[in-house]
Amino acid sequence: MAVKTHNDIDVDRLIKVFSEESSRLGVDYADLRIERVRFNRIELREGVLTTVSGMDYGLAVRVYHNGAFGFAFSSVLNVESIRRALANAYSMAKSARSKLPKPFLFESAESYYEHPVHESIENVPIDTKARDLLELDKLLSEKPFVRSRTVYYYEAVEERYYASTEDRRLGERRELVYIAASVFGQQEGVRGSSIVTNGTIKGYYLWRKMSIEEFAEKALQRLESQLKAKPPKSGNFPVVLAPETVGVFVHEAFGHLAEADLVAAGSALQGKKGQEVAAPIVTIVDDPSIDDGFGTLRYDDEGVKTAKAVIVENGVHKQVMTDRVHATLLDEEPTGNARAESFRYPPIVRMRNTIMLPGDATFEEMLEDIEFGYYIVSTAGGQTNLDGSFQVGVREAYEIVNGELGAPVRNLSITGNTLETLRNIDMVGKDFRLFYGRCGKGQVVFVSDGGPHVRVKKMTVGGRA
Amino acid sequence: MSSRASLIELATLATKYAVKEGATEAEAFGVNTRGYVVSIFAGQIKELQSINDVGIGIRVAVGKRLGFAYATGTDLSLVKEAARRAVKLAKVSNEDMYWRGLPEPSPVYPEPGNIYDSHLAYMNPETLVENAVALIDYVSQYKDNGVILSRAGLGVHTVERAITNTNGVYRIDVGTHAHVVVSTIIRKDGNVTPAVFKFDSSRITFPSVERTAERAIEVNMLCTRKIKGLEPRGYTVVYVSEALAELLSVTVLASLNGEMVVRGRSYYAGRLEQKVMDERITIVDDGTLKGGDNTWRFDGEGVAMQRKALVEKGVLKGFVFDNYWGQRAGKTSTGNAVRGGYASTPSPGFTNVVMLEGDASPEELLDGRVIVVYNVQGAHTANRETGEYSVLANPAILYENGEAKGWIQGATLGGNLYTELESKVELVGRLVEKPYPGIYVPWIRIRDVRVAQQS
């Protein structure tokens, strides 16, 4: 394999040992993941800097034998630990007493891909990054209503290698940078906080996507609007969702229901294939090929070539997101959605870049005939249940009065049934934005989500207190 | 590496390397976790995992400049490299004017008991699988009722911890832990109930998988009959331990965290010795709780674990601190330096949080017309600065005089936990449960919580 050579790991040799040992054991299927991740984490609290550096090296072996998977990992990268992990995973598979179908199998393959970067994070000294973050922090500190500031910066160079008994040998290198700045403030007895995030997989490129000044401005403007905001009315109203909220909605409220393991576990999308689950103007995909997405990957952590999962097309539910086992179990296409937080975890079905595709409406058209409603800009995240009910907490929102944006409102949430809400969408905007974040499902992975502005005829808005 | 002595030896070497590289202070925290985990999806065992994770985190100071790095595995050259990186990072960091040094050894360390069991430490993976099969068999009895074991996880772990620092801290500890998490739903006749999640754990024995599943299914069964058209207004609400723990964690516990106090973000800052909750509420953080999920002899910085009252009979008594934030507040560490493992730096957090029992019986809690909230969705979006929350109660069950009338599907709750705990508490249950790891709370009955049902 065209593997980059490292001083500290001989990937080729480790893969060779894995192949020899797994054929000697005579397992039905086995795969090996080798990870070499180097990262820095810089945090600023009121300008005080903390820097953490890590080298996360390890390997994971998974064996399928007689209807069950066994999994073992090691944080030691040598021949002996491959042998031990393989023997261990094999013994786990034999003990697991399950009747899972054989995972979806593929032809042999060989590939190594480096995601292109503008300027590698490895070529930018850490003190340059610290200086940029201190500048951001200084801008955040300049407003009198700001009481407390946290800046979180994370960067990693991820090198992941994969080999399997199908004679697949794959490798991928990408750089990932994530930033989140949060400010807490108080003004005339009102307390509030705001958070702004951004990310890239194109190296040290953050500030070219959004300058330090713009980033600070956005965080401060969000906080200021909260401190001036009034409580909302509770009830059912027409709502316009901004791209950031659409992203959270398609990921949290909808996307999880379309993960094959949760479909099999009885999610609200079970048995809905081919049925209309959204308004005909709605198309939702999980796309691993988007430019500069946190979920942009060539292969997943099961060595499956990633493919776009068209979850909803023109309102009709088409596909679910699968891993190898669920592709077989549910007789679905393999989409390459298996991801693991690190070598410490077996891959499970996860999202990558989950987005709603743009339509043809303008923002002004969406507001035009709304007598009273809400414009929901950004959220504090959300949560869904398998039954299809969701809650999304809102950070920044405004009233819509007689077709115009009105006063800011605070401390509200939107709740409802995901599929009903998708059916109530009556306008989809022509714009589009992508966002960056992390998603937890027992394991944390970096994902992107996004979409255009969207109008929902009726949504339940709840206030707090 | 397998012996305990070698983990502490490795930690000692790490601090020595760091000093040699130019650190004026150094601390090494090593963790070795071994065990097995079974995961179940849709009623089938998906996989059996063997866990073997060891590493060392090294925190250094060069004067008042700080750095942290860690190494996975036990390779001496990697530990040396991590020590070198930690010192290098400290040297390029800016000065932390508040830094007053690493902690000293505590005069006495507790012997809490019930944190290690040799049967758990040596449990073989086959025994864990037997428990998983027992769980699957138990839930399959309810197949005709439409019950599905949507997800479950069973695990058993042995954890060794070692810490050394240049002030003379030199401690080792070992403990075991077993857990079961179960999530069930009912799909029948085109209806889906919410997924209900239940947890149990122990440091010395394997929890009952049947009892855990039974508790989840009991709640699912309450959702098979629906209530419609609930009028939106203030209702008397009973928060079951899961719901209370979720809301407490985001609001009250965030405000009892010393870092939040120092940074001016805590709702309770400046209110020590004042009444902040109903007098029937006492909250302690107890790192020495016998058999507690997070009980150890020392915290993530080598400071002795302690029991401390945070709220006593409604009066605010204290906050949790690690060494750094304690010093910044002009106080000392409360033994609450929490670390995610060897890969993370310490920060103030909770050990075992216990809200002490009240005196209300289950019958009293359910008396009259009340909405019982078994769990909430979106607690993490509550506002920790103000205590306000707007969440989905899922499931919320209407009770009349102790009798369950049905599931209020799509019930949203709006309230403020700070003010509710201060002036709207009607009753505190006499039975304390552990809905999540390390949090022990009773049921609580609160008046006038705004509830609306989606139309």
Summarize the structure.
The complex is a heterodimer of chains A (about 475) and B (about 450). Chain A is α+β, with helices and mostly antiparallel strands and about 475 residues long.
Please give the structural blueprint.
The complex is a heterodimer of chains A (465) and B (455).
Chain A: H1 11-25, E1 29-45, E2 48-65, E3 68-74, H2 79-95, E4 109-114, H3 126-141, E5 146-164, E6 168-187, E7 190-200, H4 206-209, H5 212-227, E8 235-241, H6 243-254, H7 260-264, E9 284-286, E10 309-313, E11 316-317, H8 324-329, E12 338-339, E13 348-349, E14 353-356, H9 363-368, E15 372-384, E16 389-401, E17 404-409, E18 412-417, H10 418-423, E19 425-428, E20 433-440, E21 444-451, E22 454-463
Parallel strand pairs in A: 4-6, 8-15, 14-21
Antiparallel strand pairs in A: 1-2, 1-5, 2-3, 5-6, 6-7, 8-22, 9-10, 9-14, 10-11, 12-13, 15-16, 16-17, 16-18, 18-22, 19-22, 20-21
Helix pairs in contact in A: 1-2, 3-5
Chain B: H1 4-20, E1 25-41, E2 44-62, E3 65-72, H2 76-92, H3 118-121, H4 125-140, E4 147-165, E5 170-188, E6 191-192, E7 196-202, H5 209-221, E8 226-227, E9 233-239, H6 241-250, H7 252-255, H8 258-262, E10 283-286, E11 307-312, E12 315-316, H9 323-328, E13 337-338, E14 347-348, E15 353-355, H10 362-365, E16 369-373, E17 376-377, E18 388-393, E19 396-400, E20 403-408, E21 411-416, H11 417-423, E22 425-428, E23 433-436, E24 439-441, E25 444-453
Parallel strand pairs in B: 8-20, 9-16, 15-24
Antiparallel strand pairs in B: 1-2, 1-4, 2-3, 4-5, 5-6, 5-7, 9-25, 10-11, 10-15, 11-12, 13-14, 16-19, 17-18, 18-21, 19-20, 21-25, 22-25, 23-24
Helix pairs in contact in B: 1-2, 4-5
